[in-house]
Amino acid sequence: MTPTSGPAPAPERRPPSAAMKMAVAAAAVLVVAGGIAFYLASRTARHEARDGGEAVTTVTITGRTCEPNALTVPAGRNTFRIVNASDRAVEWEILDGVMVVEERENIAPGFTQTLTAKLAPGTFTITCGLLSNPRGTLHVTPSAESEAMKAAGGPPPVAFIGPLAEYQVYLTLESAALVEGAGRFVAAVKAGDLARAKALYAPARVSYERMGPVADRFADLDAAIDARAEYFERREQDPGFTGFHRLEWGLFAQNSTDGLAAVGDKLLADVASLRQRVRTLDLPPEALAAGAQRVVERIADQKIDGSDNRYAHSDLSDFEATLAGSRKVVDLLRPLAAPLDPTLAADLERQFGEVEAALARYHQGDGFVPYDRIGGDERAALATQLRDLAAAMARLNAALGLS
Amino acid sequence: MQIRLSRDIGSAAFIAIACAFANTAILVPANAAVEPRALVAPVADYKIYVTGKVRELVTDTRAFTDAVKAGDVAKAKALFAPTRTSYEAIEPIAELFSDLDAAIDSRADDHEQAEKDSGFTGFHRIEYGLFEQNSTAGLAPYADKLMADVLELQKRIASLTFPPDKVVGGAAVLMEEVAATKISGEEDRYSHTDLWDFQANFDGSRKIFELFRPLLGTDDRAFVEKVEANFATVDKILAKYKTADGFQTYDKLTDADRKVLSAAVNTLAEDLSTLRGKLGLG
C-alpha cells in the first residue's frame, strides 16, 4: 500500500522507547524524503529546461478536496504543481480506472511538488488526500501530438509489448492445460476405458484449438498432433497418422482402445514438446491478428463440413475453442485499434457476440449437439457469420498500421 | 510449473487493456538499443511470477483468515507476517490495482478516523486487532472481506495486461516507498514484522531487475554491478535478523544497520528509476 500520509504518529499505547525510536525514524524519513523531493524536483526542472514552454497546471489539496477539482489539459506532456494546503502529508495520483498513471508521494504539509506526465486523451480521476475524500476529474483532450500519432498510422512499437506479453502468458497457460487435458484423456485410453476416453476427447482438444492462431509456427508438431487421415498415403492405416485424430478414429470409428496406447504416448510427448516450444515463440505484432483471422476463416472454408472430427462429430466444441482463442487476440488488440478505428472495434465486438450466440444454441449438457445433426442450411448460415467475422478481423492489422 | 488460472477473459480484460493503452500510447519511440519485442518475454515471465505469488497469497490468506475467524489469536498472529510476504512481493505493480491495494493494505492513517474508521480494512486492520488489542473479537467481517478482496485480486490479475513501463518502473517505485515511508516501521506498526515485508519487497523488486537485466548492454555493466551490490547489501543486513521461522521484530534493527539499509534502499531507488529509460520505456 502506498500510504497517503507520512510516518505515523506513535499510537498512544506505544511504550516510550518505541515512541522515541519512531520519532528518530520519522526525522530520518524527513531527511530521506527531502532528498528524494529535491532529486525529483531537480529532475523535473531539467525536463522543463529541455522541453520548455509546456503548460503548468496548479492543483491545491485542501483537507477535503482538490482545487480546482476538475482539470482539463491537452494530450501529451503536462506538468502539475501540487500544493499541499492540508495539515497532513498527502500523495497525489492520476488514476485511469484503478490504475495509477502517475503519482507523487509523501508531499509534506505546506510543501509543493511538481509531477510531469505524458497523457493520452481520455478522462482520468485524481486523488485528493485521504482515501475517503471525493476524487476530482482530469479531462485530457486530443492535441496536435495525439492526432499526429493517429495520422502516423498506428501505435508505436512499445504499445504492442503488453498485448504480446499477455498473449505469451495465455499460450503458456493453454499449453500447460493441454498437457494436463491430454494426460487425462490418454490415461483413459491406456486404461481401456472406452466411454471415458470418448468423453474426454473433445475437452482435451479445447486448449489446442485455442492456440490455433500460432499453430503455423510449429507445423511439424501440428502435423503430429492434429493431422487428418486424408493427408497420409494410406489414410487411417498409415503409420504416419498420429495424434488426436488417430485416437479419435480408434475410439469412435473402431469403437475400441486396442492398439492406441503407443499413439497416446506419442501424443503426450508431442504436446510436451509443444509446451516447451511455446516458451520461446517470438511473435511479431502483425502475427496476432493475422493468425486469429486465419483460423476463423478456416472454419468457414474448410471445417464447416465436419471433416475435422469426422468420427466423433465434436466439431462444435472445436469451433467454440477456436473462437475463444481468436477472441483473446482481438481483445488484446482492440484497445489499441479502438481510438484509430472505432467502427471496427464495435463491429468486432458485435460480430463475435453474434457467432458466440449462434454456437451457444447448440450447447447440450457439458458439450454440444453432435455436428452430424446440424443441417446444411444451419451450417451455411454459420459459415456466413464466420466469414463476416474473419473479414472484420482482416481489417485489424490495417487499422493498427501493421499491414 | 503448473498454472491454473481462470480462463474467463471477459470484459475485465478489455478495461484493463484499455488502461494499458492509455498509458503506453504516447510514449516516446523506444531507445534504439533495445528492440521493443525483446521486452515481451520478461513482461510475460513477470506476469507468470505474479500469478504464482497471488496463488500463494490466496492459499495463505485462507489459512490466516480461518485462524482469525476461529478465534485462534496465537495462530493468527503467527500467520500474519508469512501470509503477507506474497502480497509484498508483488507490490511493485500495486499501482495497477490501487482500489484493492487500499482495501487490502492501507494503513490506519490513510483514513480520517484512523483505527476507528469503518473504511480501514485489510491486513493492517486485522493486525491492529490481533497485536494491539490481542483479540480476534469483531475481526470476522474484516477476515471475510480480506479473503474476498484477495480472490478479486486473483481474478483481476488473470485478465490484466501488464503495461511494460509500469512493470519496469515498479521496481523503483517500491524502493522509493520503502525509502520514504516503510523504513520508519510504519507499515507493521502493531506487529513490528516489517523485516518480513522488507525481504519480500526487495525480492519482488529484484525479480523485475533480474528479468530485464539481460536486455541491458555492456555500457550498463557498472550500473548492473552497483544494483546487484546494493541488493546483496540489503540481503546481508536482513540475514542478520533471520530466525528459525522468519525475522526478529523491527525494533531489534540496530541504528547502524538501519543506516546501511536506508542508504542502500535510497541508492536502489535512484538507480532503478533509470531502468525505464535504459529499456526505451522512458
Strand order of the largest sheet of chain A: 3-9-8-5-6
Order of helices and strands of chain B: HHHHHHHHHEEHH
Q: What would you give as the CATH superfamily of the largest domain in chain A?
A: M75 peptidase, HXXE motif
Q: Kindly state the mean pLDDT of chain A as a whole number?
A: 86
| Class from helix and strand fractions of chain B | mainly alpha
Question: Mean pLDDT of chain B, nearest integer?
Answer: 89
Q: For this structure, what is the CATH class of the largest domain in chain A?
A: Mainly Alpha
- Give the termini distance of chain A in whole angstroms: 43 Å
Q: Determine the oligomeric state from the structure.
A: heterodimer
**What is the radius of gyration of chain B?**
19 Å
Strand content of chain B: under 5%
List keywords for this structure.
heterodimer; A: 403 residues; alpha+beta; A middle domain of Talin 1; 2 domains; four-stranded mixed sheet; elongated; B: 282 residues; 11 helices
Task: Provide a brief overview of the structure.
The complex is a heterodimer of chains A (403) and B (282). Chain A is of the alpha+beta class and 403 residues long.
Describe this structure in words.
Chain A is of the alpha+beta class. Chain A folds into two domains: 41-143, Cupredoxins -  blue copper proteins (Immunoglobulin-like); 157-399, Up-down Bundle (A middle domain of Talin 1), CATH 1.20.1420.20. Helices cover 52% and strands 15% of the residues of chain A. Chain A has helices at residues 16-51, 144-151, 161-190, 194-210, 219-226, 244-253, 261-279, 285-301, 315-337, 342-360, 376-394, 396-399, and strands at residues 56-61, 66-67, 70-74, 76-84, 90-96, 99-107, 112-119, 122-126, 136-141, 363-364, 367-368. Chain A is elongated, with a radius of gyration of 29 Å. Chain B is mainly α. In chain B, a hairpin with a 2-residue loop joins β1 and β2 (246-247). The chains are: A alpha+beta (403), B mainly alpha (282). The interface between A and B is large, with 81 and 85 residues.
